[in-house]
Amino acid sequence: MPDPLIARLKELIVTRLKLEDVRPEDLADDEPLIGSGLNLDSIDALELVVTLEKEFGIKISSSEESRAALASIAHLAEFIRSRADPSRLPR
After folding, report:
1. Which of 34, 32, 42, 65 is nearest to 83 (CA)?
2. 71: pLDDT confidence band, cut at 50, 70 and 90?
3. What angle in degrees, to the nearest 10, is found between the helix axes of 73-83 and 4-16?
4. Total domain count for the chain?
5. CATH number of the domain to which 52 belongs
6. What are the residues facing 32 on neighbouring strands?
7. Parent domain of 81
8. Origin, by domain of life (predicted)?
9. pTM exceeds 0.90 for this model
10. I need a labelling partner for 4 at 20 to 30 A (CA). Which of 45, 75, 76, 80 fits?
11. Residue 73 domain-assigned?
């Protein structure tokens, strides 16, 4: 059964960053988000961080923390689970 948080993250990434010709199910859980892989730039990363902070009620306080959290969708899910109120996570 697919992980509902990972599915939601993929949906958010595709819709908020307006990734044309990319479907959420096309994104690999362990694919890098910044640089190679999805090739997001710093503006994309900032927009994604703001979206995640609003959606899950978390705070990403430094660029190092952001870089670690955005290493991949799987890393991002783990980061969110460790900081978010469980009631804000998809089921």
Report:
1. 65
2. very high
3. 110
4. 1
5. 1.10.1200.10
6. 72
7. 4-20+29-85
8. Bacteria
9. yes
10. 45
11. yes
Which amino acid would we find at residue 64?
A: E
How far apart are alpha carbons 23 and 2 in whole angstroms? 16
Residue 90, domain member (yes or no): no
What local confidence, expressed as pLDDT, does residue 76 receive?
A: 96
Q: How far is residue 8's CA from residue 4's CA, in Å, rounded to a whole number? A: 6
* Angle, CA 9 vertex, CA 83 and CA 6 arms, to 5°: 80
For residue 59, what are the contacts with CB-CB under 8 A and spacing of at least 6?
53, 83
Q: ∠ CA 16-22-35 to the nearest 5 degrees?
A: 75
Amino acid at position 89, single letter: L
Other Cβ atoms closer than 10 A to 84: 16
What are the backbone dihedrals phi and psi of residue 30, each rounded to the nearest 5 degrees, phi first? -105, 10
91 near 7, Cβ under 8 Å?
A: no
Task: Answer yes or no: is 91 within a domain.
Answer: no
The pLDDT value recorded for residue 1 is 73
